[in-house]
Amino acid sequence: MSDIPAQPNSTVRRRLSLDPWSLGAVFIASIVLIPIVAVAILALFPTENIWPHLLATTLPRYFQTTLILMLSVGFLAASVGTGAAWLISRYTFPLSRWLEWLLLLPLAIPAYVGAYALVDFLEYAGPVQTGLRSIFGWETSRDYWFPEIRSLGAAIIVLAASLFPYVYILARAAFREQSGAAEEVARSLGAGAIGRFMRVGLPLARPAIAAGAAIVMMETVNDFGTVDYFAVQTLTTGIFNVWLESHNVGGAAQIASVILILVIFLVTLEKISRRKIKFFSLSNRHRPVDRVRLSGVSAAGATLACLIPFAVGFLLPVSVILSHALDNPESWTDEGLLRALTNTLTVGGIAAVVTVLAGVFLVYGVRLSGRKLPRLLLPITTIGYAAPGAVLGVGILIPLAFLDHRLADFIESITGERAGLILTGSAFALVLAYCVRFFAIGQGAADAAMGRVSPSLEMAARSLGRTRAQTLKEIYFPLIRGSIGSALLLVFVDCVKELPATMLLRPFNYETLATRVHDQASLENLGDASPGALLIVLVGLCAVSLLARANR
I need a labelling partner for 482 at 20 to 30 A (CA). Which of 255, 321, 343, 529 fits? Predict the structure, then answer.
């Protein structure tokens, strides 16, 4: 009888045992989630509650403008991306093979760079208005009407031109996966090109289009550089105004919580739409759709329809930036640019390595652990990618500043010397923000890559006496290094382009390429901003080339 309780006690001891992989996974997940929790706490318990003042004054305007911007950019990007994907996947026309990949290139252009280029191209002293005055003999702006460049409409066009490839990629893949049999049945029933698109192609691709549109809208909410340059007041600019100008952290957290709720709503809506709308192939012999060769006016119209978004989203910004960069060769050797480049490579490189390694550790730890908590936390850690950089800036800086002061007091009590702010006074906060913001990329790449490794390989290694760490190093890493390398590049590129979090968390006098370009362009000094912008574009092209290769 005395032996009966032994089994439950051993089970309890096993559950309470400290598994370093499980603890590490929970720790990493907690670091990723702390900024989101901090924003919620700061919003609910502010030191100075200005919520009634925000509701009575600026918040409705911020929310309305953000909603209009988000829905307009989402609709325009979805329309352009879906239309281009349908033309590329269903028809053959002049330049169609080139345009299939050229339509990915706007992803390399940050929206704020496109904004600077558009204003420079269309402003009063730009080539368009100068040419009009020269042709028609107009002397001043009073002699003719020209649309306002720095406006909400221009911001919508710039953001849609920069973000539509998200929809294009997913929609093109969805159209390619559709069976040619459905297309032939629709054609035999008398459906024309528009009818086949509306009744067959679009309904089947709707989940993919909805997912792409949701990404576009989340990126729109995250944007700061474009809306700030166009003087459009959104929730993101509201965070900067309330925090940096009014010095009210609680108010900034309350606006950030509104953005967070909006983003969570978008993510939830996208997941629900995908769950409710599912289509299955009833045959294991999938025959692709045969492309139709266009000619005459139809071919010219299709080529033009695909060329316009490529020209607006890529050719125009690159041409303007390159022109200014060539006209100002001395700006390439400016000490500020070299310093910004060094800082960008340093923080972006460190953040990429830490993010991907932490993602690998988390996924491997969850796979090894049989506990529920790490498995529950794994999908939640992806919320950082959906949270705008300004929201993460609020959620990271306040807890980190509190910890920084406690750490400085502790060092002073031991050494008698004031150490200063170690965490917030250095680039540590910036690296942490990048890790949290782009952790989903590293985690997703590791999860997908490890899922393709046969469990029998791990069991064989363990049976030969390898530890868990040795199994990860000797079995998993050689098999997943391609995916890990891709994730490193993608995280690094996103770090280089990130502006809102960098603006909020950078130390004093610390510039990256993104902040330098924004600062110089805000001063109407596009000549000095162009080299940095061109470097950002070149880095972005590396990621786009990787994406194009993965989507062949």
Answer: 343
Query: What are the pLDDT digits (tens) for 170-218?
Result: 888 888 877 665 666 666 666 666 767 776 777 777 888 888 888 899 8
Q: Is 416 exposed, middle or buried (0-12, 13-18, 19+ CB in 10 A)?
A: exposed
The 3-state DSSP class for residue 293 equals strand
CATH of domain 50-120+149-326: 1.10.3720.10
Quick check: 202 and 82 in contact, CB under 8 A?
Answer: yes
**Sequence-ordered strand ranges (E) for 198-334:** 292-293
Query: What is the C-alpha to C-alpha distance for residues 443 and 355, in angstroms, rounded to an integer?
Result: 8
| Pairing between β-strand 292-293 and β-strand 91-92 as defined by DSSP bridges | parallel
- Reference 505, options 392, 362, 384; nearest CA is 392
3, pLDDT greater than 70: no
SS3 category, 91: strand
For residue range 289-332, list pLDDT tens digits in order. Answer: 678 888 889 999 999 999 999 999 999 999 999 999 888 888 88
Look up residue 378 and give its two tokens. Answer: 């794994």
Element (H, E) at 92: strand 91-92
**Cβ within 8 Å of residue 224, ≥6 positions away:** 112, 236, 237, 240, 389, 390, 499, 500, 503
Locate CATH 1.10.3720.10 in the chain. 19-49+328-552, 50-120+149-326
The Cα–Cα gap between 189 and 184 comes to: 9
Contacts of 63 (CB under 8 A, 6+ apart): 235, 258
Residue whose entry in the numeric block shows the structure tokens 């809306």: 227
pTM for the full predicted model: 0.85
- Is residue 186 within 8 Å of residue 144, measured between CB atoms? no
Query: Angle between the 526-550 and 316-327 helix axes, to the nearest 10 degrees?
Result: 140
Fold of 19-49+328-552: MetI-like fold (1.10.3720)
- The whole-number pLDDT of residue 446 equals 84
Identify the three-state secondary structure at position 466. coil
Whole-number Å distance between alpha carbons of 507 and 426: 6
Residue 114 to residues 76, 317, 533: CA-CA distances in angstroms?
Answer: 16, 5, 10
Judge contact between 442 and 355, C-beta under 8 A.
yes
CA 314 to chain centre: 18
| C-alpha torsion 18→20→22→24, nearest 10 | 130
